[in-house]
Specification:
By secondary structure, this protein is of the alpha/beta class. It contains five helices and 33 strands. The relative contact order is 0.08.
Length: 299
Amino acid sequence: MNSTINFTNYNDLSSHVQFSHFGLISSETPATISFLENRKFLNQLLNNHNICGVITNHELAEQIGGKNNDLTLIISNDPRQTFYLCHNERAFSQNKRLGKSNIHCSVKIHETAFIHDLGVEIARNVVIEPNVTILSGVSIGEGSIIRSGSCIGIEGFEHKRVNGQILSVVHDGSVKIGEYVEIGANNTIARGLMGRDTLIGSETKTDSLVHVAHCAQIGRRCLIPACAMIAGSAEIGDDAWIGPNSSVSSQVKVGNKGFISIGSVVIKDVDPEQHVSGNFALPHYHFLKIINKMKKLIK
């Protein structure tokens, strides 16, 4: 039989439920509390064993009851609002408890750079160029270079419409940059949240004006030229090329050695070693066929 509590406040919830994070029903992090306000996601909830508790209403709680006895049912009249307010309260608390920043003595830091005094880890032989900002929750591996004007560890773009208002979701995750990475000038890289960090693999190189959104995870030895955009929770495999001015949409997966042509808008997964082009992106040879047909029509 499911354990059931009526929600009163975050402190009461945290004293009754052992959990690691708040997260969505698709969470890959064990011991997650999620929320359910629509029956169509019920099966997904029941099949995700990472979820230990769910904030929901009385009607949906009755449909969950007995189908997964490991779930703690947290009853609220407004599950969505309760979930995000609780996440924010926990995130604020976690961010306040970050330890003192640890910067190796060999790191070269320009006098105009700003590095937060809490929650930053920088390994040996890193170079921080002028006007760089490194905020809490960032770790940078050995030998990496952060070029001028880049901002690492920013709050990501996560805002929810709740009861006619917009609620900004606090980010409580990290940015983890591997070894011998080069981050180009004026890049922006957002922190992760809800148990998923933003990752940039070792030896990856980005050009100027690249944006990496929250929870995006980029593999090793990738090359990302100017003005590319990697949206939230996208996954890029090793040795990929993400062309200039291209966009990889949220939760899209690009396989190892995937190749994204200049200006492409990628909204579907890209297989390993696949080459895609266009807006919206297609396999490159299909794209060329379409272009050739268009040329004939114009003639």
